Amino acid sequence: MDQVVLCEAIGTEGYIDPEIETTRGVTQRSDTYALGVVLFEILCGKNAFLPKEADRYLAGLAKHHYENKTLKDVINPNLWNQMLGRSLMKYSKSAYSCIMDERAFWANMDDVVADLEKALEFQSRLEILREDKKVIIHNGTKCCNVCLDEKWNAKIENFEDAEFLTLNQEDEALYLPYISRNVSPFHLDLEYTKTGILKRESDVYSFGVVLFELLCGKKAADPIYLDYGGHHTHVARSRFAAGTLESMIDPVIIYPNKDSLDTYTKIAYKCVAETQAQRPSMKVVLKELEKSLSFQDEEANLIEDDECKGYNT
């Protein structure tokens, strides 16, 4: 139990533990509250005490937005655009745990430090990639890790299981027999599970599973695939080889352009090849997906032109 020291509520406005005013008691946890305020100052780019604003105390403002899941509204936009989602989540949760209403539920300093180190670790992985341009294997590609930024540009999230390789590392491969429990078994490279060899082609396999999830409108873990005869990817691969994949396509995808669909399904099929050596590089995948999109765009433009002609006649 924390030792309590009786005292007046004296200190810098905005950082004082609110319970001091009611209990007249200071404990080590009073410093925890002040640290939480400092963490939110960094995150929001605001001072702890805001005399000219309606919400004069940053702690109360941050707490309100955190609890209502609107923290983005007060976070410094520069930090918001640069921080990984998992790093931001860990940091903000740690800060909030320092200023919750009930002192009894505040985190202890050791836990706060551990959480901040984890948040920094997530972020530093991305910075290493940006600065050193090392080869990265995400090792966790799935739909929920493919996100959009504020400008609707795609970005990959959650690098906690990522592995980094130096550019001159032989074969750009890593022997990693331990499989993280965070990795979805439905997106896991089959060759990696057998050999323990993790390569960039392992991410290609996972991305291929995502492509089939988008095409079929169902998660890879959907139990409906048991009715089809097993694992989502096995079913999609066998249906493609048999020429019956269209029966699995999401009906919401109405009348796709045939060339576009063929290009898309062919590259998705190649991504989930059983061996790493048979899979294309992500550059090839991107090129084929762009080609698929161009076929669809061409058809959309033709339809639009025909509609315009109809209005003009």
Note the main attributes of this structure:
2 domains; Transferase(Phosphotransferase), domain 1; two-stranded antiparallel ribbon; 8 strands
Characterize this entry briefly.
With 313 residues, this protein is mostly helical. The chain contains twelve helices and eight strands. The strands form four sheets. Strands 1-2 form a two-stranded antiparallel ribbon. A two-stranded antiparallel sheet has the order 3-6. A two-stranded antiparallel sheet has the order 4-5.
Q: What can you tell me about this protein's structure?
A:
The protein has 12 helices and 8 strands. It is mainly alpha-helical. The chain has 2 domains: 5-127, Transferase(Phosphotransferase), domain 1, CATH 1.10.510.10; 134-312, Transferase(Phosphotransferase) domain 1 (Transferase(Phosphotransferase), domain 1), CATH 1.10.510. The strands form 4 sheets. A two-stranded antiparallel sheet has the order 1-2. Helix 8 crosses helix 11 and helix 11 (258-271) packs antiparallel against helix 12. The longest helix has 31 residues, at 282-312. The chain starts with a strand and ends with a helix.
